[in-house]
Specification:
The chain is 26% helix and 22% strand. By secondary structure, the chain is an alpha+beta fold. It has one domain: DD-peptidase/beta-lactamase superfamily (Beta-lactamase, 3-Layer(aba) Sandwich), CATH 3.40.710. The chain has a six-stranded antiparallel beta sheet with strand order 5-6-7-8-9-10. A two-stranded antiparallel ribbon has the order 1-4. The longest helix is centred in the C-terminal third of the chain and has 17 residues. The protein is globular and about 50 Å long.
């Protein structure tokens, strides 16, 4: 609300002008309505508390209003754009690199994992592949995780169209760490 008051523009207009367009994040759209172009069907499990049905899109519309996310997420994106965003963000290209020490000054967040910290909008994780900066995301019917590995300068993201963790077999963060391990071992050979 402060951004909108100061600029006289909506949050989404400012985010598009200041970030999405300059960084060429073309596959990232605001969640500003019940119909979101290009978003695949998501599944939240039967009898879930978010609309009560497994499928989250019915007749082209979300069964719950995605606008409730607003600045708490509020965008639909692709894994490609999320990985690009992670690289821009954690290499200091989305805003001044001088802000990175503040962003990465995390506090212990044991509920997110052993040795995990939370900074300014960033989960700082110690993984078998080294330190990772990133964030996970949840919206009924969808889960996302993205990580940037500063030692390797590699950003990865994964998205699934379910919000039922038991359907995955393993946490998305583990999928990203394993993918990085495959990438780095292939580069060594």
């Amino acid at each position: 609300m402060i951004i909108e008051k100061v600029t006289g523009k909506t949050f989404y207009e400012e985010a598009t002008r200041r970030l999405l367009k300059p960084l060429k994040l073309r596959d990232t759209i605001p969640q500003n309505g019940m119909r979101l172009k290009g978003v695949v069907q998501g599944y939240a499990g039967p009898n879930n508390p978010f609309g009560g049905s497994d499928a989250m899109i019915r007749d082209g519309k979300f069964v719950i209003n995605p606008q409730f996310e607003w600045t708490g997420g509020g965008f639909a994106s692709t894994a490609h754009d999320l990985a690009r965003w992670a690289r821009y963000l954690y290499e200091g290209k989305a805003y001044s690199f001088d802000l990175m020490p503040q962003v990465l000054a995390g506090v212990p967040a044991p509920m997110l994992g052993r040795e995990t910290k939370y900074g300014l909008g960033v989960i700082i994780r110690q993984t078998s592949a080294g330190t990772a900066f990133g964030h996970s995301g949840f919206f009924p019917g969808y889960m996302t995780d993205m990580m940037y590995f500063p030692e390797q300068r590699i950003a990865l993201a994964v998205q699934v169209n379910t919000s039922v963790p038991r359907d995955l077999g393993k946490p998305l963060g583990r999928v990203l760490v394993e993918a990085l391990e495959v990438i780095t071992s292939a580069n060594k050979n």
